[in-house]
């Protein structure tokens, strides 16, 4: 299939030929003054400030080509970057996409990747305004995202104060369940979770909504609830004390429990330590009505003897806290 003329490999095309297959899939709206095709893009920045963030996906580290299509990887790469913009309380506006592909990759895979970006960005009015293309030994997708604070102050990781309510929007543990099902060679155990692993959805509108409601700190949960809550706690110099997960995260636990039972895994470890769901974790002053779909998952406490970080019901968590590329 891969060597038929109808399905060319990347190596059968020129750079310009590959770009010609990518460009038609990229969303383009009125914010973009100069889009793909020139030396750089030009976009509007009405606020006078620009939110900018970058995240990379590496083949066999973040995705496997026998587990995910090009469309899936494009979608995931877009969402994980859009979630970082939303986590600042901003509205995502545009992306640039740097792509490394091996010559033996089917060109259709690259076109699917562009389509995945379009599918994830288009509905949010986010434009893909440019990028870069290189050959290399494995697929690498590096995305830079921009966002608009619409006149509001950014919501940092460092603003949580003792007494604040800790709240989460989105799901916890579903992506980990999907990953585990794929890793066990049993994707049929939970096709929905496998779908969420391949194409996570982030509650992007909840970021600006949290900012408007007065969120004191926020981040997206990319590496696991415990690890990211700990980051927020340390950045703020406080303790994020999560409520009993069996109560606060009952819906997430119920969602993955049958899959965990089928695979002999611990659902609490997935919900507290699984990453790549890209929900938003935020803190709010205690008198604030939580904007939908945020739900309370804990409370902020002053640091005690153990310093800042994360606890579960006042105790040091016992499950693996989440993903770290270099530590266990
Ligand atoms: N190579 C780097 N050079 C400069 N700053 C970096 C580099 N890598 C990460 N950072 C910065 O460190 C901070 C933490 O980065 P990190 O990637 O952990 O956050 P994230 O993108 O929200 O999470 P994740 O990548 O796990 O989804 C960010 O402010 C990021 O810009
Ligand atoms: C093939 C394969 N193996 C393992 C995983 C799990 N995984 C990889 S990176 C990461 C955290 C977020 O990364 P980052 O911090 O870089 O955004 C997680 C949970 C996967 N997705 N695919
Ligand atoms: Mg990052
Ligand atoms: Mg983040
Ligand atoms: Mg990370």
UniProtKB/TrEMBL annotation:
Name of this chain's protein: Thiamine-monophosphate kinase
UniProt keyword list: ATP-binding, Kinase, Magnesium, Metal-binding, Nucleotide-binding, Thiamine biosynthesis, Transferase
Pfam families hit by this protein: AIRS (PF00586)
Gene3D superfamilies found in the cross-reference section: PurM-like C-terminal domain, PurM-like, N-terminal domain
Catalytic activity from the UniProt record: thiamine phosphate + ATP = thiamine diphosphate + ADP
Domain PurM-like N-terminal positions: 37-147
Purpose: Catalyzes the ATP-dependent phosphorylation of thiamine-monophosphate (TMP) to form thiamine-pyrophosphate (TPP), the active form of vitamin B1.
Positions that bind Mg(2+) 2: 55, 84
Positions contributing to Mg(2+) 3 binding: 39, 84, 220
Associated pathway: Cofactor biosynthesis; thiamine diphosphate biosynthesis; thiamine diphosphate from thiamine phosphate: step 1/1
Binding positions for Mg(2+) 4 per the UniProt entry: 39, 53, 84
EC number: 2.7.4.16
Family classification: Belongs to the thiamine-monophosphate kinase family.
Chain sites annotated for binding substrate: 62, 276, 323
Record has Nucleotide-binding as a keyword: yes
Positions annotated to bind Mg(2+) 1: 54-55, 132
Gene that this polypeptide is encoded by: thiL
Source organism: Cellulomonas biazotea
One record GO biological process: thiamine biosynthetic process
Origin: domain of life: Bacteria
Residues given in the record as ATP binding sites: 131-132, 157, 222
Coiled coil: none
SUPFAM superfamilies the record matches: PurM C-terminal domain-like, PurM N-terminal domain-like
Stored HAMAP family: TMP_kinase
Binding site for Mg(2+) 5: 223
GO molecular function, one term: magnesium ion binding
Classification via InterPro entries: PurM-like_C_sf, PurM-like_N, PurM-like_N_sf, ThiL-like
